[in-house]
Amino acid sequence: MADKDNAVFNTIQQAPNLRSNLADMLTAQIESGDLKPGQRLPTEQAIMIATGVSRTIVREALAALRAKGLITTRQGLGAFVSNDPTPRSFSIIPNDLQSIDEVLRVLELRMGVEYEAAGLAALRRTQEDIDRMQDRLDALDKALEEGGYGAQEDYAFHRSILVATQNSYYGRLFDTFGNIMVPRQWARLDKMTSAERKRHAARMRREHHAIFAAIRDRDEPAARRAIRSHLSKSAARFEELRDATV
């Protein structure tokens, strides 16, 4: 194997989510040009030795890059950087959310998108949009009152805000991710007491109703504040959960 290949792969560091870390590092090497179009990647064994991760982690990371069109495999020859490695699509899949830190990164992304969307929705929403949002909000309230996660209903409510922007690209962006944008697997409701779950449900209802009221009343600044407050509080709750499990 060339020394250059060794130098590239020696820069990969371990992290709690090894697959994502390895895939991200390889992606960065490809996008920076350190790994050039058509260049052969080191063998799985060489990557394992250089990074200290298992063969399973290496294969999962390479599969993720293959799915994004960044690398190709040739029977009996190994993996190669694609001739045109520029990613053509972006997505978040369940395996990307293997840690609370990854969930927090998704929340950062959502905050950037939904902050602007909430403001536009307040300016542009129609009565049909308000009726749709009310239906989604009622469904979310019902799910929370019944003690459920309400992830699907939560996703539907937030998507209805994006639809109300009258800019179809917002809705299409959320459709790319699906309800994984509401990472219910980390909510840990099953570990809450009955009283804690009630408080959690009440808090979620208050935050969502504040967003809805601002958009309904065409109050653009309030809509932006409400969605930012909601997502910021969600991030703070996940940070507390992360710190409590360290």
From TrEMBL:
SUPFAM superfamilies: GntR ligand-binding domain-like, Winged helix' DNA-binding domain. The keyword Transcription regulation applies. It comes from the Bacteria. SMART domains: FCD, HTH_GNTR. PROSITE patterns: HTH_GNTR. InterPro entries: GntR_C (IPR011711), TF_FadR/GntR_C (IPR008920), Tscrpt_reg_HTH_GntR (IPR000524), WH-like_DNA-bd_sf (IPR036388), WH_DNA-bd_sf (IPR036390). Keywords: DNA-binding, Transcription, Transcription regulation. Residues 16-84 form the HTH gntR-type domain. PANTHER family: TRANSCRIPTIONAL REGULATOR, GNTR FAMILY (PTHR43537), UXU OPERON TRANSCRIPTIONAL REGULATOR (PTHR43537:SF5). This is FadR/GntR family transcriptional regulator. It comes from Rhizobium brockwellii.
